[in-house]
Automatic annotation (TrEMBL):
Compartments reported by the entry: Membrane
Highest taxon above the source species: Eukaryota
SMART domains in alphabetical order: IG, IGc2
Protein name, as recorded: Fasciclin-2
Gene that encodes the chain: Fas2
Pfam families, per database record: I-set
Principal location listed in the UniProt entry: membrane
Signal peptide range: 1-23
GO molecular function: axon guidance receptor activity
Species the sequence originates in: Trichonephila inaurata madagascariensis
Amino acid sequence: MDLSAGISFSFLITIILCSYSQSSQLYLQPVKNDHAYFTGDKFFVTCFTTEDNIEKLTWTDFESNPISTNDGRIHAEPAEGDQVGLRLVFTNVETEDAGTYTCSDDQDSVSFDLTVYRAVSFSDTPSVQHAPEGDTGVVLCNVKSDPKPVVNWYFEGTKISEDKKYSIHPDNHSLKIHDLTRNDAGEYKCKAFVFTHLSSQIKDFDIKLHVQYVPEIIGEQRISTYASVGSKKNLTCTVTGDPIPIFQWLHDEMIIHNNTKNFVIYSTENTSVLQMHIDNEDRFGEYICRASNPLGEKEVVIELKEGDPPSAPELSVIGQDQVTVKLNIKAHEDDDVEDELRVVGFKVEYILASESWNSALSQEFKIGGPYELKNMSYNTDYIFRAAAHNAAGYGNYSGPVEYKTQDLQKAPVISSSSTVFTLSSLLFVSMLLFVLL
Ligand SMILES: *[C@@H]1O[C@H](CO)[C@@H](O)[C@H](O)[C@H]1NC(C)=O
Ligand SMILES: *[C@@H]1O[C@H](CO)[C@@H](O)[C@H](O)[C@H]1NC(C)=O
Ligand SMILES: *[C@@H]1O[C@H](CO)[C@@H](O)[C@H](O)[C@H]1NC(C)=O
Ligand SMILES: *[C@@H]1O[C@H](CO)[C@@H](O)[C@H](O)[C@H]1NC(C)=O
Ligand SMILES: *[C@@H]1O[C@H](CO)[C@@H](O)[C@H](O)[C@H]1NC(C)=O
Ligand SMILES: *[C@@H]1O[C@H](CO)[C@@H](O)[C@H](O)[C@H]1NC(C)=O
């Protein structure tokens, strides 16, 4: 926009100068005497002449050294297009380039002053920063510029204002966060503004803040669980923590090493599973899952007691509602069973009558039901079986129960809501008739 306005302006001048003067005249574009840029900028200033060639034009710097037309960081090159002019091109301008530049021929000369400011830089500001929870956290922004920048901070896109929670250091611009919590973790932006009467610059830098904390146990800190001799058992502990915690398992104050005869440990970022084979009664007792990071450690104590899984439950099929098969499952347990060993749920496995249990599908239920298998096929022979679950694990499966689902036309609708609907609509119609009569 500026350029085209400038071009028409220059045409105007050309016409005026051509009609009123025989000697050459020089003029610059952009049409101003003061140019200000930031280090690293790339720009050019063009010197136009009323003559019809540029052979006599030269650019000189503040020490009167002519600027060559080679391809240097600062160089001169002919203007493109119809106009007759010589450009002075700066690539990657530096502070020492500041000064007066002059374009001249044998009759005229014209100059401009170049000011160069040091651009905003965030050199060696880490883009990922860490601070421990609880203390006062500091987010660094090593922003530099000349003149000095004004710095604003943003958290998750919202501008931070200085208050009880936040303060911004006037010299090094670091952001202090008081009473740092995990909610303060996230994306910060350090935004720098530089302005002078000649120019301005805005730059920003994104920083991800991790708030570190001592491992925290998810769930109970003391757990009791059961198993029987000869069975396999998984002990699990789940924590969160930053840095990611390291897990260690102990039994009888001895560290359990991975991949030994009776133990395998599987750990992910926040869960560790101790998979064990209970070959004798010495395996019962207290296990400790210890999760630690540089900020501290936490322990989950798991008491492993001897106890049997439940006996096989009783399974029968109630019926079918469209593609849903409804089951009845009853636990078999003694009245005097310990509360901690009561049945808490069931697992139902099912296969097509032609398949083996290796290809079984399964579904788990909490005790109390309803025990419904959705999305079954019409007119299909199935075999079902169920096992009960308590703190010692799954017990034996019930005997297999065969059931053939009915085909689409015959599938009965055992939902009662439709009957209620018919009844109430009947009632409504009769009331209507009554009123009309
Ligand atoms: C910022 O500067 C102040 C004083 O100049 C200093 O006490 C503080 O440690 C500095 N903060 C950082 C993060 O460099
Ligand atoms: C223990 O965990 C492993 C792997 O997660 C699993 O395959 C296995 O079935 C589990 N064992 C028991 C007894 O729950
Ligand atoms: C323990 O050993 C098993 C089997 O070699 C391996 O898959 C697992 O990752 C190991 N666990 C740990 C915590 O190193
Ligand atoms: C486990 O860690 C993952 C990844 O760090 C996290 O997304 C998930 O919420 C954590 N789970 C729990 C239960 O804290
Ligand atoms: C499970 O079945 C096995 C063999 O069929 C039997 O020895 C065991 O006692 C049964 N377990 C329970 C809890 O009923
Ligand atoms: C129902 O079963 C079909 C075929 O087995 C499967 O593609 C579909 O995802 C299932 N739908 C639901 C809701 O489980």
